[in-house]
Amino acid sequence: MEKLTDRLALGVLRFFATAMLFFGVSVFIAGVPLFGMLTGSPLVQTIAGILLQIGGAFVVGGGAALYLSRRRGPLLPNERAATSDAERPALGGWLIALAIVLVTLPIWLVLRLRPFLAEWGRVIDFLATLDIWQGANANGSGLVLLPLFAALTPPFFELAALSAFVVASAALFALLLSRSPRFPRIYLACVVLLSALVIASVRGADAAMSAAEAVRQLIEDTNPSAEEAALLSDSLNRYTSIVSSTAPVLVWALCAYLIWIPGVISSRRARIVFAKRARDAGAIDLESITTPPRFRS
Questions:
Q1: pLDDT digits 0-9 by tens, 252-285
Q2: Do the beta carbons of residue 22 and residue 30 sit within 8 Å?
Q3: Residue 281: per-residue pLDDT
Q4: Contact (CB, 8 A) for 63 and 25
Q5: Is 46 left (phi over 0), alpha (psi -120 to 50) or beta?
Q6: CA distance linking residue 171 with residue 5, whole number of Å
Q7: How far apart are CA 197 and CA 204, in angstroms?
Q8: Of residues 71 and 103, which shows the higher confidence score?
Q9: Which stretches of the chain are DSSP H helices?
Q10: Helices 183-222 and 145-177, packing angle to 10 deg
């Protein structure tokens, strides 16, 4: 029988996997017709293509994580072995190093991305002072928010990836300390979801860079005053600098997860430490004993 923490972790994982899959399918439903109609603008078509790529990553990532979190039969090598809690060995070797990574990685991410988080604080304060939400639906004025939402989409993907790294590291560290038999499966599902979010962050940053170049060209063509041009250029440069510098940090964080996959899935130590509890295996054996065999005539 699974512990409450295992069932809770799998339930939360299924929720986020379902949400990611739903978002990816929604992007495809809205993006495929839009991509075919926007042939007149290379920039808009490029951004639409990037959105379709992000949707594809979410469909694959969400579907794979949902499969990993819902499949009940044995899937990984550790789920085909069984041991009692008394005979289960303590953590050791490279598992200690993995535990250290799970603790230090989110701390490193938050410290490394302090400028990114500071910019998000400014954005939240800016939106709060504008009081734009009360009149957003009045006379179609909500359309004014569309460029703002479009500009915030790439950094939102990055913020979602950063938050996912912090939450996943905390949950996996707890499961690792308890030597949960579900740890390898949940670790693999978390890597799949994190990979989709990092891909969305990288491709979103690329879309932001393409849009920024178009905005710079628009500023030059409209010939604003020197003061306005300087203000717009400074804001645009700060935006592109933050977005473009955050994506590589997330990629490195993902690599810190990916290097442990072979050990978590196929190593002998992981197979023993995270083996199924013996009482679960006993229930399977009892079922095989009490079920009469079928004989061919």
A1: 999 999 999 999 998 888 888 888 877 644 444 4
A2: no
A3: 44
A4: no
A5: alpha
A6: 9
A7: 10
A8: 103
A9: 4-37, 42-70, 94-112, 114-130, 145-177, 183-222, 226-258, 261-266, 268-273, 278-290
A10: 160
Dihedral of alpha carbons 261, 265, 268, 272, sign: positive
Which residue's entry shows tokens 């009081």? 131
Surface-to-core class of residue 66, CB atoms within 10 Å of its CB (0-12 exposed, 13-18 middle, 19+ buried): buried
pLDDT, mean over the chain: 82
Higher pLDDT, 35 or 286: 35
Cα 56 to Cα 25, 52, 64, 74, 196, distances in angstroms: 8, 6, 12, 28, 9
- C-alpha 208: how far from chain center: 19
From the list 216, 192, 204, the residue with the least C-alpha distance to 49 is 204
Per-residue burial over 131-155, b if 16 or more Cβ lie within 10 Å, else e, is: eeeeeeeeeeeeeeeeeeeebbbbb
**Residue owning tokens 């997860």:** 257
**DSSP state, residue 294:** P
* Model pLDDT, residue 117: 93
**How many CB atoms within 10 Å of residue 182?**
24
Top pLDDT among 127 and 187 is at 187
CB contact at 8 A, 24 and 197 = no
Q: Which is it for the CA torsion 266, 267, 269, 272, positive or negative? A: positive
* Cβ(254)–Cβ(195) below 8 Å: yes
